[in-house]
Amino acid sequence: MVRTAAGADNLHVRWRVITTATARILALLTLIGRKAGDAVLPNACVFCNVRCRQERPPICDECHHELPWIRDACRVCGIPVAAQLPRGVHCAACQLDAPPFTFAIAPLVYAFPVDAAIKAMKFRRKLFYVPAFAHLLDESLRRIPADVDALLPVPLHWRRHAMRGFNQAAELCRPIRRMMQLPLVTNVVRTRATPFQSGLTATQRQRNLQAAFAVRGTVNARHVLIVDDVITTGETCRCLANVLLDGGVEKVSVLAVARALPD
Ligand SMILES: [Zn+2]
Ligand SMILES: [Zn+2]
Q1: Residue 254: φ, ψ to 5°
Q2: Which domain range does residue 228 map to?
Q3: CB within 5 A of ion ligand 2: which residues?
Q4: 223 is a domain residue
Q5: Is 60 exceeded by the pLDDT of residue 24?
Q6: Of 51, 163, 239, 249, whose CA is between 20 and 30 Å from 196?
Q7: Minimum mean pLDDT among 53-57, 161-165, 189-193, 247-251: which range?
């Protein structure tokens, strides 16, 4: 049977309706899950599950102390460095191939228990981690350049958003937006459902992300802060920053909960 263009369009529309409905149902389940999680364990530490003094968000002193904090990092790419670099001096990787963003910060190494918590948030809908991560970003927020005037959570492709029911970067951005009192950039979209980046080589990652984002119209901001859960190689942020700069934004910075160490 020959499938006509109109037939294909119809199928596409039907698929979109189904996935949008699925997204709504999943979002509702997420909300219910969040309330249920709050009710069952009101002040158990989100990392070790032991009851703790601190309630909002519940992170016990021991876990807080033991988390894989990044002490010194390159100001441009956020990668941990052995000792604090003098102002204006960047890591070797940035000196060789400077990224298109001017500043990046992530307070934690993407290692246990942070990696497990991020995966649980993203793939098992444990959204009670969101306020905990926002709390852990507190100190980093004070170091964000003062001229940042808009926030952009890394967009998910609509199909992945529909299947997951939420965008973890957008969830993280919600409390950050409240704390920073800044508007969101809402007209940047992910145009391709790129496969997951993990397990790919640097070249494969670049190819994977080519033309993955697009600006619809113009971005009304001069310095955009990209918000994500984890910076792996930084390739997603590079692509997104290039799209923003091509769209007329003057500067781009990056904020994430965690930074993966280079292989
Ligand atoms: Zn704990
Ligand atoms: Zn660097």
Answers
A1: -135, 135
A2: 62-259
A3: 74, 76-77, 90-91, 94
A4: yes
A5: no
A6: 249
A7: 53-57
**Ligand 1 centre from 94 Cα, in Å?**
36
The answer to pTM > 0.85 is no
Cα–ligand 1 centroid distance for 63 (angstroms): 4
Residue 77 placed within a domain? yes
Residue 213 counted as domain residue: yes
CA of 115 to the centre of ligand 2 (A): 21
pLDDT in tens, 69-97: 999 999 999 999 998 888 889 999 999 99
Round to whole Å and give the CA distance between 85 and 262. 18
Find out whether 154 and 238 touch, Cβ atoms under 8 Å: no
45 lies in a domain? no
C-alpha–C-alpha distance, residues 21 and 4, integer Å: 26
**Cβ(47)–Cβ(117) below 8 Å:** yes
- Which ligand has the nearest atom to the CA of 46? 1
Q: What CATH number corresponds to the domain at position 226?
A: 3.40.50
Token pair of 198, please? 């993990």
Ligand nearest to the CA of 259: 2
Distance 67 CA to ligand 2 centre (A): 22
